[in-house]
Every structure is written in structure tokens, then in C-alpha cells.
Amino acid sequence: MSAGNSMIIVDSAQPGQSWLRAWDELVEATPGCDVSQLSAWGRVRAEAGYAPHYVLVTRGGEVLGGAQVLVRQVRPLGTLGYVPYGPVIATGVPDRACVRDALAGALDDLARHRLRMLFVQPPEGVDDLSGEMIARGFRGSDACVAPPGSLRIDLNRPEDALWSELGNKRLRREVRRRSWENKGVRVGRGDERDFSVMAELLARTGAHHRFQPYSEEYVEALLHGLGRHAVLWIARYRGTPVVAHLYTLCGATMRARLTGFDRAVPSPNGLPGILHWEAMMWARDQGFRWFDHGGLPESALRTLLDDVDDWSSLSSYVRYKCDFGGSPYRCSPAVESIRPAALRGAYDLAMRTGTGTRLIRAAQGLLRQGRVG
């Protein structure tokens, strides 16, 4: 711990349960925060080879701001860390600029003395924090340790208003008539018995899109570890699981996290959208204010935020998200620290070559992937 301006910096991998409870309360109370800053997420990631580290700005026993840094050894690069959707500063905190400066300074100290690379994707609304970190030696980053923005829907409206924004005519018709109920489709929340179902459907999606899916052990660890902060929804056709969506819950927001879909099962069209809609209505009934689609790439954000009429450049998956309506938003600028200068130069050089880019992206993917054991 270190002190300054009556504030105390808690800089520790094990700050103690009282500080962790206070930190979790801050994350849940701050609009736009994500489960990836909760200590429960840190414990889940610890099972996959990460070490959560906490940098907290406190005063009088209260946490005013902070960050959960997920740290991992990545050979041959050394010790890397990343901060998804953090740091976080309490809403309406007095002397916010002092909290911001203390937090930026503490993260800079961590990056200079204990990490070779630190990648930070702040949440929305903390542009000044990104600027302060750049002033201390960080630089802009395109490492994409978390999506740079997303699309969210305001659920604090009548169901008819939400229905009217659906851009897919077939989905609008299905939702209005609930015709899937007469076609052998059953939609509902999953439970512990369905964890393996989620993992299997993720594996089918991974095979279809040619990416390495999360393991069944990691999916189970994620769902068990997050507890009330995660909910699983499954669509079955004639008893066979076809689609599964995993959502995370933090504060007033329900966020889409993972999707598994078995395209080999003959089933009615539109099941992923139907499942999304039902989960959205559940979130609305539970009192959640926002439904977040879980991220958009920078290219899509540029198109949507610039209000471009031509959506031909958008992928089918992005257009699928847009079919639910909502408003796009961009997070505050991502930043990174890569030290020493020789490593930063090698990193930059590698990013300018095809082989180097693939190696760096593989290392960045290792930061985000989930493997137990």
C-alpha cells in the first residue's frame, strides 16, 4: 500500500475479502461496467492460468476507483497483463481528477516495474483516464483485448416498442405470433445440467467457424464461478438442444457473451433470434435497464456511429445484431504500455509483417482464451 493526498493505493494480488467486496460493489454500482472486472471473474480466470491483480484507489475504507488486471506469463514475451472494461471510477466521486491521476499513476507503476506489456480497454465515459495514461507514457492500442464498443437496447420501454424495432420481418412475425411453440420448439433458462450442453454447442460453432472453442471444463468453471452473474438460455427442437446463449449480468446490464449453435440439426429458421428475444424479455421483467449485444468490431462501429446508410460492409453477424435495434456506443480509447523500448520496437516491427502479426495475435488470443489445466 502507498498513500498520497489522503488516498491509499491498494496494489496487491490478494487485497483481502473486505477490499474485494468493496470493489465488487463499486463495479456493480457503476453504469457500463462488466463482469470481467468482478473478483469472481478473476477467480475463474485464475483456473485458466491467469493471476488477478488489483490496483485500488481508496480513502477512509471506501474504494473510489480501481482495476482488476489479469496477468499471465507468455513465452517468449514475458509477463503480460490486460484490463478488460477497466479501470473503473465511482460515479459522482469527489475529487474525480485526483482519483483518476492516482489510478493512472498506479497502473503506470505496475507496467514499468512488473509487466513487460499491459493492454487496457477502458469502459465507456473515461476518455480523460485514457488521456492521463497516455500522458504518463502509454500509447493508443489496437490489441483488442476487449471489444471497442457495442450495441445496446434500452429495456425500460413497453414490449411493443421493443418489438417495433426488430428489423427482421420473419422474427417480428414469429415473436408476435409465438408460432415456434407449435413447431416443437421449447425456449427457456438452462441450469447446471445444461453446462455440458453449452460446451457441446460451442464446440459445434467453433468447428463451423474454424476457431478453438472454450473447453467444457472452462465453461463449467465460468458458470459455477460467476453464479448469479451469469444465465444460460437454451432452445430445443423436439427435445434436441440447438442453440445456447450465455449472458452475463452486471449492475443494470445483461450482456450477450457466448453463443453455441448446432447447424446440423434440422430445425425451424430463426432459433438464435427467438432465443435472444426471449432472454431480452426476461431481463426486462427482472428489472435490467440495458441489453448489450456483447461487442462490435471497430469497422462496424465506424459505419454505425457515422450513420452511414450503406451497410454492405457489415458482416452478417453484425447485421443480425442490428436487427434487434438499439444504439451503438464506443468505449474510451484503448491504451498499452510495452517496455523496454527494445521490446516495443520488436513488437511494432512484428506488427508490420504477416508472420509477426500472426504471432502477436496468437499471444493476444492466449490472453483471452479459456483453458483449465
UniProtKB/TrEMBL annotation:
Domain BioF2-like acetyltransferase: start-end pairs: 170-295
Superkingdom of source: Bacteria
Single annotated GO MF: aminoacyltransferase activity
GO biological process: cell wall organization; peptidoglycan biosynthetic process; regulation of cell shape
Keywords: Acyltransferase, Cell shape, Cell wall biogenesis/degradation, Peptidoglycan synthesis, Transferase
UniProt cross-references to InterPro entries, sorted A to Z: Acyl_CoA_acyltransferase, BioF2-like_GNAT_dom, FEMABX, PG_Glycine_Bridge_Synth
UniProt record similarity statement: Belongs to the FemABX family.
Protein name, entry field: GNAT family N-acetyltransferase
UniProt lineage: Bacteria, Bacillati, Actinomycetota, Actinomycetes, Pseudonocardiales
